[in-house]
Amino acid sequence: MTIERITSSTPQWAAVRKLYESVYPEGTRLDYEKLHNVIRRDDVDFLTFYDHARLIGFSFALRHKDVAWLYYFALNREVRTLGYESLMLSKIEQQYANHRLVVNLEQALPPADSDEERVHRHNSFLKAGFRDTSALRKAGGRWLRIMLLGKGDFTNEDYDRLLEIDSEWWAKTQC
Question: What is the distance, to the nearest Å, from the Cα of residue 175 to the centroid of all Cα atoms in its chain?
């Protein structure tokens, strides 16, 4: 598996966009043009994962001090049963070895059609070494479980601060 940092001149940009829009439903994703415009920032890691020339998935993370927020993690649906998810998460863990890596996952509350997928996603992150934290938030009518990989804990107060930084970060981004 190879990893490439995506740039605005990445030839596979159309394939990454197609994957992004197929994995994240409208209402859960940022405007793609805004996402495209932020990749030049030093504190952003937009990484693509390939098996030879085949796009396996991507990750998008914002870094601040000792925290990296795994904002998006997408796996090509065609390869979901082939072990790539674990391999990608392992590579991401290596990438952020000196950070507390945070991810927020939609809880299976209230029950929904996507419960099986939500449980699978949670179990995949647990298997990769993430752990549940005491932080739990409701956003846009959805409950979000905050998971952490790395030393220490991550509380609701930590998450509030991360959201403040996130707001400041996006406000400063020229799009």
Answer: 21
- Provide the phi-psi class of 120: left if phi over 0, else alpha when psi is between -120 and 50, else beta: alpha
Query: What are the CB-based long-range contacts (under 8 Å, 24+) for 65-70?
Result: 66/98, 66/99, 66/100, 67/99, 67/100, 67/101, 67/102, 67/158, 67/162, 68/96, 68/99, 68/100, 68/101, 68/102, 69/102, 69/103, 69/162, 69/166, 70/101, 70/102, 70/103
Helix 115-127 to helix 84-95 angle, to the nearest 10 degrees? 50
Q: Tens of pLDDT along 85-143? A: 989 999 999 999 999 999 988 875 555 556 777 788 888 899 989 999 988 888 777 78
Question: Beta strand 67-75 with 100-106: parallel, antiparallel or unpaired?
Answer: parallel
